[in-house]
Amino acid sequence: MRFCINYKFQCATSVSFTRQCIVSKVPIKMEVNPPKQEHLLALKVMRLTKPTLFTNIPVTCEEKDLPGDLFNQLMRDDPSTVNGAEILMLGEMLTLPQNFGNIFLGETFSSYISVHNDSNQVVKDILVKADLQTSSQRLNLSASNAAVAELKPDCCIDDVIHHEVKEIGTHILVCAVSYTTQGGEKMYFRKFFKFQVLKPLDVKTKFYNAETDEVFLEAQIQNITTSPMFMEKVSLEPSIMYNVAELNSVNQAGECVTTFGTRTYLQPMDTRQYLYCLKPKKEFAEKAGIIKGVTVIGKLDIVWKTNLGERGRLQTSQLQRMAPGYGDVRLSLEAIPDTVNLEEPFHITCKITNCSSERTMDLVLEMCNTNSIHWCGISGRQLGKLHPSSSLCLALTLLSSVQGLQSISGLRLTDTFLKRTYEYDDIAQVCVVSSAIKVES
Length: 441
Prior knowledge:
- There is one protein chain.
- The protein folds into 3 domains: about 160 residues, Immunoglobulin-like (Sandwich), CATH 2.60.40; about 120 residues, Immunoglobulin-like, CATH 2.60.40.1230; about 100 residues, Sandwich (Immunoglobulin-like), CATH 2.60.40.10.
- The two termini are about 60 Å apart.
- It is mainly beta.
- The protein contains 3 helices and 36 strands.
- The strands form 9 sheets. Strands 3, 7, 9, 10, 11, 13 and 14 form a 7-stranded mixed beta sheet that branches. A 5-stranded mixed beta sheet has the order 2-1-4-8-12, with no helix packed on it. Strands 17, 21, 23, 24 and 25 form a 5-stranded antiparallel beta sheet that branches.
């Protein structure tokens, strides 16, 4: 490909410089305080941005038409088109943007500041200061706060500033210049350059709370810009109580392959879904009362590239879920077979947790048979005292008298202290098959 230039200098006003550069005549929106008198120095501010690929509008026709092959030959002779693919709108050359362009949240704003001595005098003690004013703060972007001793005629002071944009809305670049004339008079002036920062992505999240204390996060990321994005990284940084596993890849022939394909481009207005599973760490999983009340899950870190490799990065605020309500006592299944034989006993393991942080419970277990599920054992047995935020595991035996997918129901826990009964139905489901079919363990 043939490249014209790497960077574009977009100037606030139409001027010429002694250095070799291309200056656009498209002005930045500017509000200038009217000077009380003629200043010896001139301030110019330009935005630095990379060029874009040249686009053309192909004009072609069929050979039976009047022009024949004339239009196609003109496109083949055009140096800006791609050889062998002349009808594509995308060309080989680079072009300089003719406007200020869009600035999106998470990108880096770069600007070139030049102070030129237009007079025939030597100016002393020149101090150039660049601040960025947002709706919430004012940032100093100057590379150096030291004053330049003197500036001769037709000489200039140059500075390049960079800032990673972290706020949406109106931004004002305030450039102030102070200097001293040969006569000892102190002079000062400043200019304001206003620009808008837009939102590049729309992020929506959904939480799913599993019975095993796992939390599933679905993140929907939509590209709301007008150009495609290369999604370099989308990761979840969990809170200190969780470990995270990404569910956005599959194992193919021993190699982990992303579910989005090899080209992870996100076209304008397209949406992509990312899925993550958060599991509580071992030291917190044993404390049911703590995990129950955790609402802060973590934050998403998104990195993308646009056009010719300009990088952008966004990090969301802490994502919060609705804490699940388990009540005072929680019953969960630790182990259960997927398939069992008809009228043959099978075993399950239940975990009973006292979710209260203050009260000790004295529990009694009752087992009620249903039309298809029959419990094996003594109903109404004492489980003993269960202290706050503690758990106990219980092995139970049951059998099914009906084939098919059967729901395990009929467990009752009674707290003898408060005379309160907790009912647990549809705890899980198990597939019951004929005993003639061998069940793989």
